[in-house]
Amino acid sequence: MATQNRRGANRRQRGMNRPAQRSFSGWLENISRLLIVAMFVVVIYGGKLVYQQIDKPLTQIMIGGDFSYLQQQELMSLVNNQIDGGFLSVDLSNLSQVLDAHPWVDQVSIRRQWPSTLKVEVLEEVPIARWGKEGFLNRLGEELTIADNSKLADLPVLRAKYGTSREMMQEYQSMAELIVPTGLKLVELQRDSLGAWRVDTAVGIRLVLGRDQIAEKIRRFVLVWKSGLNQHLGSIKTIDLRYPNGLAVAWKDGALIDAQDDTKANTAQSAQGRQELLRKNYG
Predict the structure, then answer these.
(1) Does residue 267 sit in helix, strand or coil?
(2) Which DSSP letter does residue 112 get?
(3) Residue 39: helix, strand or coil by DSSP?
(4) Of 115-129, 187-201, 240-254, which range is least confident?
């Protein structure tokens, strides 16, 4: 009986110790949580102090690039107007978008340089064509303002009574690329009020294209040109490509139809006869 009593007493003692153990474990858990929170607060606060120490006001803004038309002071003003933070907090994405929106800016790169410098590299747009009498366009068809345009007289001219400058630039780039195999250079592209296209080349040949299927017409012209029409380069005045399956040529006065048959009969043919012959040969 005594042994049984001792066992019962041990069981009662262990049962009394369990709440104490649970209490101690809970206390340790609470302490651990408090320590984690304290460490988190310290890290946040310390990080904030470090950030504040690093995020000092910018003391120097450097703008680089080779500029022919952009004014560095204008770029500096744009940058200064967008600076709303320090070394770390300045919004580089917004600043880049603002600079990119300038018609004379092609590309922009911005980076920080420790401890308080902002470096801005700008690639200037290149004027691709003249726009009417006084304007200029970049590669996207955006209008550019140029005070001194004396060095740009050789740029091709785009004129439009129908459509936008962007559409004109897109068509010019497309036509210029398509016509490359002929060796001809576009010097003027016009679109009239009805939407019809006309191209003047550097050698004085005019291409009349009409309103639609422009790319197809130019490809047809390239084929005919390389098939022998290029031999009459100096004799051609106008090439009319508005025909569905061919083309017609208007010759200069006294031009020869066949460069290999220089006879009086050829010289005496009328311009109309030359047109009909070429239409038969190349249509």
Answers:
(1) helix
(2) E
(3) helix
(4) 240-254
- Tell me yes or no: is domain 129-282 CATH 1.10.10.10: no
Nearest to 161 by CA among 201, 199, 190: 190
Q: What is the DSSP string of 189-241?
A: EEE-TT--EEEEETTS-EEEEESS-HHHHHHHHHHHHHTTGGGGGGGEEEEE-
Task: Scan for tokens 């208007």, then name that residue.
Answer: 250
Q: What length does the chain have?
A: 283
Q: Residue 190: beta bridge partners? A: 159, 198
The Cα 150–Cα 153 span in angstroms is 6
In this prediction, residue 271 has a pLDDT band, given cuts at 50, 70 and 90, of very low
The pLDDT value recorded for residue 21 is 60
131-145, 183-197, 256-270: lowest mean pLDDT where?
A: 256-270
The whole-number pLDDT of residue 264 equals 34
- Report pLDDT for 200: 97
Angle at 171 between CA 165 and CA 172, to 5 degrees: 85
- Cα dihedral sign, 84-90-94-95: positive
Q: In this structure, which topology does domain 60-124 adopt according to CATH?
A: Ubiquitin-like (UB roll) (3.10.20)
Domain borders along the chain are 1-54, 60-124, 129-282
